[in-house]
Amino acid sequence: MAGARSASGETGVRRIGFLGGTSPDPATRRTAIDPFVQGLRELGRVEGRNVEIRYAWAEGAPERLPGLAAQLLAAELDVLVAMGPRPALVAKAATTEVPIVALAVDNPVEMGLVAGFARPGGNVTGISSFSGELVAKRLQLLKDLVPTAQRVAVLANPNTVSRVQLEPALRRFERALGFSVTLFEAASREQFEPAFDAMGRDRVDGVLVLADATFWTDRARLHELVAKHRLPSIWGGRDWLDGGGLASYQSDFPAIFRRGAAMVDHILKGARPADTPFEQATKLDLVINVKAAQAMGIAVPTALLVGADHVIR
């Protein structure tokens, strides 16, 4: 199917690989895949005509990612798109030759993806989604919604972000916000319930759930546990709130993936990732779930409602 490879990117059918840690469920399609494909189409790259996109999904099982990356790379890709931090790191480890566009990742320099934002210096470029800064903003959001909170939990997957990385930042946020912040970890569905039981023993007043492919894939179970423990919860994206989450503050994922399509097009035209600046998302979405707040007896401040991009009633 594919034509001859061309440095100009204008000859033959170009092959794009798409490596994701989640599953291609309707929410993932709406917020990531569809904006990416539409962005390519607007640039004249139409799937099935002059572009072939090969998808590989880990379905929330990060141990599958290296094998999936190898399968994609065996197809002689022109560009490999990696969705999220873990897929990006796996992609970087899998090839030094195929250009990689890493989308919705954390700080790429701290992750070891690139040498610098302005000049990545290798075969990886992409778009950061503010992850580190957003943790502080989400904790502030929880304080605004539950001003009496004294103890707050942060739930993270250690396969995505390590305690060594998180703890120093959490201690800074703790001092700034005036309540204690305790990190709880869960690497799999089987560890969800023990983590929430531990939160119950610690009598936490709310929980911030850090976005992760494993958490996303099994988010229905997390919703059940949040409801069981009656914990006000803050999440990373509007689609996390379907199970009764209180609020979300996250980068605009459709905008990231539309912009990602433009970066892929730029590379297919001959640009090198090493010289293509790593970008940072510019738009953040605040979503308030008034329905969930009312069910928990929480009065949402008017300022938050006025400033929200979306309100669920």
Tell me about this structure:
The protein is an alpha/beta fold and 313 residues long. It has two domains: 14-130 and 252-283, 3-Layer(aba) Sandwich (Rossmann fold); 131-251 and 285-312, Rossmann fold. It is built from twelve helices and 13 strands. It has helices at residues 26-42, 65-73, 85-94, 108-111, 131-145, 163-177, 192-202, 213-217, 219-228, 253-268, 290-295, 302-307; strands at residues 14-20, 51-57, 79-83, 100-105, 124-128, 151-156, 180-185, 206-209, 233-235, 247-251, 279-280, 284-289, 310-312. The protein has a seven-stranded mixed sheet with strand order 7-6-8-9-10-12-13, sandwiched between helices. A six-stranded parallel sheet has the order 2-1-3-4-5-11, sandwiched between helices. The protein is elongated and about 60 Å long.
